[in-house]
Specification:
Blueprint: H1 2-15, H2 21-51, H3 59-63, E1 69-74, H4 79-88, E2 93-98, E3 105-111, H5 115-134, H6 138-151
Antiparallel strand pairs: 1-3, 2-3
Length: about 160
């Protein structure tokens, strides 16, 4: 972007040696358009910096946003489900693994200002995990059906073919 600004200023300096009245008006109009474009890009950059990154990020970046951080413990088996729902609700979060214990614990850090969105996300997450516990295990059902099939007596056939001499 800086190169673009420098190139345009050089072009303006070169063209000023051969300016007429109409050329001067065109130059002023293009300078105004250019300044509006620069202002728009600087506003976009400022917005990106102020809003920061959204969704999953490192704990360091999350704390660096200076908006207060809270944490919740979560099981490893539920991480993927939680990430999916947190992205849906637009929650900025970071996952940290605590290796000091066996088995390791996982903590989800999130911004304090996202507390309302996180409560809604946790409600949906808990409802989804409750549904999973209510569903029957397919493997258990398969094992039960295997046992049932094994208990059915098999038909026996005796084929005796006799040959006469």
């Amino acid at each position: 972007m800086q190169e673009d600004v420098e190139n345009r200023t050089i072009n303006v300096v070169i063209k000023t040696t051969k300016l007429s009245g109409k050329a001067m008006i065109k130059l002023m109009m293009s300078a105004v358009k250019f300044l509006k474009g620069v202002q728009k890009t600087t506003n976009d950059v400022a917005n990106k910096i102020s809003h920061g990154k959204h969704g999953k990020q490192s704990v360091k970046k999350l704390i660096g946003q200076n908006q207060g951080v809270s944490s919740v413990e979560i099981a490893k088996t539920q991480l993927r489900d939680f990430e999916r729902i947190a992205r849906k609700y637009g929650v900025d979060f970071a996952i940290k693994k605590d290796r000091s214990e066996m088995p390791p614990k996982y903590f989800v850090f999130f911004k304090a200002k996202d507390a309302d969105a996180l409560t809604a996300a946790f409600k949906e997450f808990s409802a989804k995990s409750m549904q999973k516990t209510k569903r029957p295990s397919i493997l258990k059902e398969l094992y039960r059906l295997k046992e049932k099939v094994a208990s059915i007596p098999k038909k026996t056939r005796n084929k005796n073919q006799e040959r006469d001499l």
